[in-house]
Amino acid sequence: MESNDKPVSRKHLAKLAKLYKVKEQDLLTLWLADKLYDVVKDEEFALKAMEVAESKIKTKKKKGN
Fold this sequence. Notes:
mainly alpha
C-alpha cells in the first residue's frame, strides 16, 4: 500500500484508522489528496484548476448543496 502498488480503497480507511489509532478524517484527507494528485499531476495548470475547484466547493457549501 505504501508504494501505491496496491491502492487503498476508501472502504478500508476506517479499519486502518482504528489499527493505527489515527483519525479517519485525517486518512480520508490524505486519500483524497492522492486521488486529486493522480488526476492533475502532469497538467500545466493543475494548481489553477485546483483553486477553481476549491472555490466551487466553497460556493456549493455556502448554498447548502
